[in-house]
Amino acid sequence: MAQVKLDKVCKIYEGGVMAVREFNLSISDGEFVVFVGPSGCGKSTTLRMLAGLEEISSGTISIDGKVVNQVHPKDRDIAMVFQNYALYPHMTVYKNMALALELRRVPKPEIQRRVMEAAKMLGLEPYLERRPKALSGGQRQRVAVGRAIVREPKAFLFDEPLSNLDAKLRVSTRAELKALHQRLKTTTVYVTHDQEEAMTLGDRIVVMAAGIIQQAAPPMEVYRRPANMFVAGFVGIPPMNFLPGVLVTQAGGLAFVEQGGATLNLPAAHAAKLREFADKPVVLGVRPQQLGVTRNAAPGTAISIKVEITEPLGDLLDISGQTLAGHRLVARLPAVRGELPSVVPGQTVELLADLESSHIFEPGEFGRNLTL
């Protein structure tokens, strides 16, 4: 196990394209950190620089206190698991897992011990004499993980390892990876574009966009206290709703006035933080789970939408539509006593907003969260 540190790491490609900018992150010994973000945000490039597969343009990378900028990948004492498994088709599962140790001239009894321990841990013992073509996708991925485990590295690097699996297998393999980390306690860096994977796996998640860390924090902190509009919109299913508007002083408090639409009275805790932004344009962020259908709501507590789409999801119902001012809203409604709310397309409903849990942002894609 080892501490991993990236200090002011940048990657600039030919033509001046900056893929990663001033990346600063310290990963603790034994921590499971997930890099998450949309395609092209720089997460895989950062992982490849950490592995030594990509040269860094500036900055330093340290593993276990040693700067490894000029250290060859094979000498960094890390193990990487790729999206495509990269197994040798002509070799058995045992040989695939043992090969790296054989190349290092590890004694045969030690190779057998490590391979058998990893196979037992991953449930691969019945398949050791099979070749990859005789395995399912999930089993192949476990072999790739086993090949990494037998090396007993200082750190594991995973580059979207579950992308090729179907939805059901992704869930079960994800659980296996989490249980495996809890047993091994090896420092792990994991890259994914799937925010659900990030939320469930990581001790800490690093949300990236445009080559920059937007927020690095434990999963629930990122969900409940997003640093900016990008993070708030990226993390959470369905995504957070955003309404443009302005803050106005009202009866000693503060209210959010939707652009061309409804007025919502902000809670005292919000008002105390936001007084300096009165009369300035802002964006209200409220999660779909924080909206509920109501009747005869008190003034300043609800917003009306004309429902366009309803999506039943077992014991949940997603409804989406437009406010009277033309802004889109999605609400996720739970079943009550086993029955979904009776809402149909074309209906106008009032949605009660949990404003205590809402956020106010500066306008713009990366507008900061003013309520933190």
Radius of gyration: 25 Å
Mean pLDDT metric = 93
The separation of the N and C termini measures: 35 Å
The total tally of domains equals 2
Describe the structure.
- Helix 2 packs across helix 3 and helix 3 packs across helix 4.
- A six-stranded mixed beta sheet has the order 6-7-8-3-9-10, sandwiched between helices. A five-stranded antiparallel beta sheet has the order 13-12-11-14-20.
- It is an alpha+beta fold and 372 residues long.
- The two termini are 35 Å apart.
- The protein folds into two domains: 231 residues, P-loop containing nucleotide triphosphate hydrolases (Rossmann fold), CATH 3.40.50.300; 121 residues, Nucleic acid-binding proteins (OB fold (Dihydrolipoamide Acetyltransferase, E2P)), CATH 2.40.50.140.
Question: What are the defining features of this structure?
Answer:
372 residues, alpha+beta, single chain, Rossmann fold, OB fold (Dihydrolipoamide Acetyltransferase, E2P), 6-stranded mixed sheet
Helices and strands in order:
Elements: E1 4-13, E2 17-27, E3 32-36, H1 43-51, E4 58-63, E5 66-67, E6 78-81, H2 93-103, H3 108-122, H4 137-149, E7 155-159, H5 167-184, E8 187-192, H6 195-201, E9 204-209, E10 212-217, H7 219-224, H8 229-234, E11 241-250, E12 253-258, E13 263-265, H9 268-274, E14 281-286, E15 291-294, E16 302-313, E17 316-323, E18 328-334, E19 348-353, E20 359-361
Parallel strand pairs: 3-8, 3-9, 6-7, 7-8
Antiparallel strand pairs: 1-2, 1-4, 4-5, 9-10, 11-12, 11-14, 12-13, 14-20, 15-19, 16-17, 16-19, 17-18
Helix pairs in contact: 2-3, 2-4, 3-4
